[in-house]
Amino acid sequence: MLVIDDEKDIRIALRRVLEYEGYNVFEADAGQAGLDRIAEGDLDAVLLDIKMPGMDGMEVLRRVTESDPDLPVIMVSGHADIKIAVEATRIGAFEFFEKPPDRDRMLLTVRNAVQRGRLNDEKVSLEQTLTKGFRLMGESPAIAEIVRTIETIGPSQARVLITGENGVGKGIVARAIHKASTRAEGRFVEVCCAAIPDDLIESELLGHEKGAFTGAAARRPGRFELADGGTIFLDEIGDMSARVQAKVLRVIEEGEFERVGGTETVKVDVRLIAATNKDLKALIAGGDFREDLYYRLNVVPLHIPPLRQRKEDIPVLAEFFLGVYCDIYGLKTKTMDKRLLEELSAHAWPGNVRELRNIMERMVITSRSDELKADDLPPLGEGLSVGGDVWEDARTYEEFKGLSEKRFLEKKLAENKWNISKTAKILDMQRSNLYKKMQKLSITPPEKA
After folding, report:
1. Sign, CA torsion 90/93/99/104
2. How many whole angstroms separate alpha carbon 121 and alpha carbon 119?
3. Within 10 A of 448 (CB to CB), how many other CB atoms are there?
4. Is residue 144 part of a domain?
5. Using one digit for the tens of pLDDT, what is the confidence trace for 78-121?
6. In this predicted model, what pLDDT tens digit does every residue of 19-44 receive, in sequence order?
7. Which residues touch 78 (CB under 8 Å, ≥6 apart)?
8. 8-state DSSP, 236
9. Same structural domain, 187 and 83
10. Are residues 35 and 161 in the same domain?
11. Cα–Cα distance for residue pair 29/268, rounded to 1 Å
12. Residue 284 belongs to what domain range?
């Protein structure tokens, strides 16, 4: 991420906000200095001021769009002018903000810009990896059935609701459906409903007109418009607010909507795939999800079982990730010994495929041998970040407690080969209480899958 601004205080303020969010930030205090840094490469996006001495931001933008048209440039100006905003958008600016920019909206825009830049840079290899990854990700009957279902429903226009725990690969399945469809040449637009604040998601999905709110200096299309002729994937749809649910329902039923702040009706032709790790029927019963929206989304239900219920997929996945990360880090292809595969297969994987992926990457990086052995395996379940990204998955304190408790119990049960009596004794709790906890937290022994 590069910030180009002649005002030092502005650069420092933007840098602090972006670095707090985990971005690696570079600075340039003039237009030419910014172009010189851009020429070095390795940037995901640029935040660019307009009014600067010497070469102004508009000239920098023109040169960037000529030399590196796939690099997203976000314009930031303290001198708001609609004509300038429109011109910047015409030249190729990703977005235009007035100073000081709204923090949440700016971060969301930066995240979208970075995502688009990375997708542009890696589009071909990403699609190949995803396709190959899906085909290699299982030999279990469950995965075979999912593949057959995708082959059957792919060419149709049917809406699909994908369910499953965090980390099972719902996004990969959604992409596979898109690739198998008649819309494969169209866009696949992904929206994580849980990652976008409630006050911004309507604008993200439907777009907005200039002047719709502070900082809306120009019209911006939403994700539904961008997906016109293709597929839109609404991940974590159970986190969508009731107001936005109603808007989505209208798009599904009528294929049209109005942008935020606008009166013009926009018509779109999109295929909708949704996914959730939540029990939508329970949300409906609690008044948190619309029943009519649920039935419109759930035309074709597709459930992805957790990894602990398809143990035969673990060696296949491990081999796949081993090859991927050896390629990424430029290493000679490594192998795995029999005992390591046995250890991997015995683990319950509460974090599912995501957890296995993280473990394989870690071993590829840390092992100095051409063969990975059981001794290279870090303690499985150590640290909440390894145990399925609980910090990321939990959105409330209660969810965090529930996820932490579930993963702790799954780890202990797996360590004791799912012997309930033995586990209860080690945990110093009554056997009946452990059963109740397992029922409450939906903990299922692998053999009962």
Report:
1. positive
2. 5
3. 7
4. no
5. 766 677 877 888 888 888 888 777 888 888 888 888 876 655 55
6. 888 888 999 999 999 998 888 877 88
7. 51, 98, 99
8. T
9. no
10. no
11. 43
12. 157-303
